[in-house]
TrEMBL record, chain A:
Protein name: Cation/acetate symporter ActP
Gene label: actP2
The entry's keywords: Cell inner membrane, Cell membrane, Ion transport, Membrane, Sodium, Sodium transport, Symport, Transmembrane, Transmembrane helix, Transport
Source taxon at top rank: Bacteria
Coiled coil: none
GO biological process, one term: sodium ion transport
Pfam families named in the record: SSF
Organism: Aliarcobacter trophiarum LMG 25534
TrEMBL record, chain B:
Natural source organism: Aliarcobacter trophiarum LMG 25534
Superkingdom per UniProt: Bacteria
Residues passing through the membrane, by range: 25-43, 63-83
Lineage summary: Bacteria, Pseudomonadati, Campylobacterota, Epsilonproteobacteria, Campylobacterales
Pfam family, one: DUF485
Swiss-Prot/TrEMBL keywords: Membrane, Transmembrane, Transmembrane helix
Gene Ontology CC annotations of this record: plasma membrane
Protein name (record): DUF485 domain-containing membrane protein
Cross-referenced InterPro entries: DUF485, Inner_membrane_assoc
Amino acid sequence: MLRILSIISIFAIWSFAAGDATFEGKRDLNISAIAMFLVFILGTLGITYWAAKRTKSASDFYTAGGGITGFQNGLAIAGDYMSAAAFLGVSGLIYMNGYDGVIYAVSFLVGWPVILFFMAEKLRNLGKFTFADIAAYRLGQKEIRTLAAFGSLSVVILYLIAQMVGAGKLIQILFGMDYEYAVFMVGALMIIYVTFGGMLATTWVQIIKAVLLLSGVSFMALMVLWHFGFNFESLAQTAVNNHIKGEEILKPGGFLSDPISAISLGMALMLGTAGLPHVLMRFFTVGNAKEARKSVVYATGFVAYFWIIISIVGLGAIAFLNSPDGAQYMEGAKAYLDGGKLFGGSNMASVHLSHMLGGNAFLGFISAVAFATILAVVSGLTLAGASAISHDIYANVINPNASDEKVVKISKITVIIVGIIGVTLGIAFESQNIAYMVGLAFGIAASANFPILFLSIYWSKLTTRGAFIGGFMGLITAVMLVILGPNVWVQILGNKEAIFPYAHPALFSVTVAFIGIWFFSITDNSKRANEDRAKFRAQNIRANTGIGSAGAVSH
Amino acid sequence: MKENLVERIEANPKYQELLKKRDSLALKLGIFVLVMFYSYITIIAFNKELFATKVWEDGVTTIAFPIALAILVISFITTLIYVRRANGEFDDLTNEIKKDVKDYI
């Protein structure tokens, strides 16, 4: 453990010291940034060491032993949500397009209440470790767990790539470290956190990061508002004056120009929330349904607050960075209104703003927090991916008699493999837009995971065949439409015109999934189907009352 | 679960009361949030200019901002309303049901 730690620290320092010469103007700020950065890495590795000593059973590894409180879990859920795409991506979207970034923020939030009202409690009562537990409660274990593992892994890997790209870009810009090394370092740290510390370490890293991120962004928003005498109108006026699009930035609808795309994205962001495997896992880290509900209230509160202040930070970035003083953050030091482009792209808007508002120390703080954000989110994601393989596929399909130790061991091997895949794809997808990729991950979660979860809880006539075929139809449709859509077919594969005209497929793929599940369930007259349906009554009682479900503490 | 536990719970009037109360609250709040959100998205999709109306006559701020703020705040308040009742009234009912069927679990 200590050896790995020291190797990483040396590697990190060496990489920063060997920083790229093109970042001359910014070299002096590296010291405080590196200091903050190392403090964070040492601190979180300390947590991992502490957690490793307490992580003994599979339950400890997947759910932190079920001993997390509602408030802590609320912070951790909010932390999983406030990823690099949220912090860097949405503030960058607002910086680029104005109000359209706010639409993302609003759509990301409204999924929460809906999950709480219709699903959270039932998920908590039926599940144990993963979302497949719920769907497999009365349906065929093998089919459902295979489907769920595919759905989870697709979402996890897409989401992971987005975070890796964000991390690589951030480190590259801040410290002048090579992109590949940056991605490699994130991958290595993530593997250490998850394999040694499991859910307990992942949760605590997430909680600490959520607190740091919320305070850092609050400070930024306060500084912005203070500068404008706490008058939103004068902030908006300055932003309008300093943006090429002028008053357009305060109106909705620039990039969601056609109605189908707008509705489809809204659907993906909302329903996808209910199908994110790393967020669903967090319902099982608390002791009972009461704490699970509380954690959703806290999470909703923190995330809503976060979106409000991010909107102010985004407008502040327009007002500050596009001013004459902001020219130092533009490539070639050309002011924005004279055609200057933000150094490192629009995703770095809030990072540059932190330097402008609080100098080198604050830049160091924000960069360490942004890096922590990425690490914490990729750890949670990797753990969800590992559970899909070890718990759903290995322990329930391949070897049902496997011991706890064996399953945890398989998890750790999976973590390493998922880590390597993440690093490799992170490097391959260097030039992809992170906010868009997260939108896609939500789209797949909404199409493959959400319909199965929802119908298995509410529809007594659901059968294994219907869920299996319909679920895969949703997953495949979502993936195919993404490939045939404008972002992949035109921009990556270089074709002239997209076969499928919309960038966001959820409206179509979610519909296909629901119709597929419905059709293949009602036409299913097998013996198995009747058994599946007969089990609904007992499942419904457990889902509603929790009677018969093991508390997370006493697995 | 024992054989007749399902029948026993389903026949318990408290269980019926729990389902009725909770489903009706969840449905009301859920429909409220869904209608609010999809109205927002639909207006953006079909009539953007509606949100471009100015808040102050001589200012630049559009009503799209207070509307987004309102959706965020209302979403949070609805979760608060639900959890208050679920953690009080509904949990009490659930515990009573558990007590009633204690010997059968």
